[in-house]
Amino acid sequence: MKSRRGKKADPKKKIMITASLILFLWIAGFYIYTTYTNIEIQEPEYEATKLLSTQNEQTVENAEENSKTIADMIEETTQSIVGISKLKNTGNSILSTSNEAELGLGTGVIVTENGYILSNEHVTGSKYSKCYITLENGRNYEGIVAWSDSDLDLSLTKIEAKDLKYATLGDSSQIKVGETVYAIGNPIGFEFRRTVTSGIISAKNRSIRINEEDSNAYMSDLIQTDATINPGNSGGPLITPTGEVIGINTVKITTAEGIGFAVPINVVKSIIESYKETQNYEQATIGIYAYDKQVIPYLDDNISFEKGIYVAQITANGPADKTELQEKDIILSIDGKELNTMNDLREYIYTKKPGDEVTLKINRRKINKEIVIKLGRK
């Protein structure tokens, strides 16, 4: 029987296969090498780093632009700052070398083009008082206090002038703790008029007790700031980096540094608008003395409530007298507007007129009820 043997391999064919395989491997290697090289050449990380560098450069440029804008805004706002004195100066300006104590020097801010100036009552005096105003351009005017509120320590003074540069009013309800603010005022005397100091909003809705003539007074819902406030700054504005007035500087803690207070601007906006449009304002009142939960601990540690306004006293023969409202009631809302601070109540009442009716939702011994009161004239 014959044995079967395989055919002998063709040497030429073997060489061609080997050559083809080498060529294929070379082409594949070249493709992989080229692709890898291209990936390295693109260097995506470098591009990302470059973009980040560009962003940083833009941020620096924007910061510089913003800084310039802030400076411009502050400079523009200072044009609406005035000096106020209760005593008439015989010189060219009340902002003289006489000190603050001699002239009763304080600060105000123009809030309408037709001559209304917002300040503190303790700077200008109460309603119908006379004071003296020096504008940024050095011109002097005699002013008459058109409106004032001792509880808020705010006043509006009218001078006979038109086309005045006035400040822009912001929204004090939108402020946040930690935001940058600037205080502008006339500390000490002439040499330091329109001084600008910077700081932050340290706290909101602060309540403080003030000792005056052997009696205690309370100011609530204040903006606390660490911007430097000195004698003469009273009545000046507390402004945002955009130049908007969010408060009026009123007091500072003399026993500590970096603790000053301003009255939020929102509480007086409706009054300013009324004088601007009609040259008049009729202030409505409920006829009560009330406190929010920030002040109550000063008065009575046994009183506690989470929301609302505590009615401490009802004014005899006032609008609330002889209604169902009682002392020790907690007013939760007015016409559906929730109340948590005294400024919440003031802001709403200041938008009303004597004779308007309001509905109070009150809590009395854990029972809620509604009471309608016709507002009177203050």
Notable features of this structure?
378 residues, alpha+beta, 6-stranded antiparallel barrel, 7 helices, Thrombin, subunit H, Pdz3 Domain, disordered N terminus
Give me the Rg, rounded: 36 Å
Helix content: 25-40%
Second-tier CATH architecture of the domain at 168-275: Beta Barrel
Shape: elongated
Instruction: Let me know the average pLDDT.
Output: 82
CATH superfamily of the domain at 168-275: Trypsin-like serine proteases
Using the coordinates above, name the CATH class of the domain at 168-275: Mainly Beta
CATH topology of the domain at 168-275: Thrombin, subunit H
Number of beta strands: 21
- For the biggest β-sheet, the strand order reads 1-2-3-6-5-4
Strand content: 25-35%
Uncertain parts: 1-7, 39-61, 90-102
How far do the termini sit from each other?
137 Å
Count the DSSP helices.
Answer: 7
Structure classification: alpha+beta
Order of helices and strands: HHEHEEHEEEEEEEEEEHEEHEEEHEEE
What profile does the largest beta sheet have?
6 strands, antiparallel, barrel
TL;DR of this structure?
The protein is α+β, with helices and mostly antiparallel strands and 378 residues long. It contains seven helices and 21 strands.
Which SSEs are present, and which pair or pack?
Elements: H1 11-42, H2 44-78, E1 81-85, H3 100-103, E2 106-110, E3 116-119, H4 121-124, E4 130-134, E5 140-149, E6 154-158, E7 168-169, E8 180-185, E9 195-212, E10 215-225, E11 237-239, E12 244-252, E13 260-264, H5 269-278, E14 284-285, E15 288-291, H6 296-299, E16 309-314, E17 330-334, E18 337-338, H7 342-349, E19 357-364, E20 367-374, E21 376-377
